[in-house]
Amino acid sequence: MGTLVEFTTHGTGQAQALSAIEAAGSEMQRIENLFSIYGEGSNPVKLFNQSPPGIMQQLPAEVATLLETALKVEKRSGHAFSPTLGALNKLWGFSQTEMPALPPPDGEISELSKASFACLQHGSEGSFSHNGSLCELDFGAIAKGYAIERGMEILQSHGINHAIINAGGDIKVIGTHGERPWKIGIRHPRNSGEVITTIEAAGEISIVTSGDYERYFNHQGRRYHHILDPHSGMPAARARSATIITSNAILADAWSTALFVMGHEGLPLIGKMGMNAILVDGNGRIHYSKNAESRLQPSRSPPMLRTSDIKTDP
Ligand code: AMP
Ligand code: MG
User: Fold this and answer.
1) Which domain holds residue 229?
2) How far is the CA of 278 from the centre of ligand 1 (A)?
3) Which of 49, 53, 195, 280 could form an S-S bond across to 136 if both were Cys, CB 3.0 to 4.6 Å?
4) What's the confidence (pLDDT) of residue 290?
């Protein structure tokens, strides 16, 4: 996932915490190996991408379930989120270690973005087919949320009730820090080291941000970053960062990417689903989803969220 993962626990002895963290870490690594379309080694997602067109492939239940969730987000977001952008993402090359220096040719961008549209066929019981080699699954915008979710389940199965998992700014918390809630800063998309707001979280809460500062290059005075608008195949321009706050980290991850692409016009939809959001738009203005406004604006201190504030119905 190209990031360090930081675990914080409270209220458990060190030995118990360490073995829980080790188990959660290996589970998160297993998920990365299962879903990543980059790097060495084979996995069911790469095999699906290389499979012949038009022939149903049985996906492992875990992969099929995450794909089904991703397809629901795709549909509900009006194709702002797409799990079939693999070929286009590879063309741009943001997941390589070295950032690219130039955008790819326009013709290839539009060919691959068209090819990614509605290119999957859903068969029975977790089987899928694709319609050609330009239709590649890419779970890059949702698998980290799944890894965080599973990592937290493992911590809990080891008796940890108060913890934070922080995977490069994508966060899930459970419980509290003793008498106090956990404090989570939302980073400013331009001024590194600054936060736009701090959230106090108690209970099960995921806070996931998609930002144009994570992987990008500048070319002729323009920033090209890794979150693409599937409609154009170009880096989405309506936001600098999009944060979703809800209980489930999978939905927080998928919808932060979707909201980033949709821009502030996507906020009513996020509110309707019972999630909270903070969006920094393309001009640097900060917007809140309706339900988040009263709780999260920095002027109203302390901003406080409890699990009972969050009802997600995606
Ligand atoms: P995130 O950082 O969670 O917003 O995910 C970004 C990653 O997801 C990129 O590196 C791509 O692999 C992939 N991606 C880029 N644009 C999209 C999109 N519109 N929908 C789904 N996945 C995307
Ligand atoms: Mg995401």
Assistant:
1) 170-313
2) 18
3) 49
4) 85
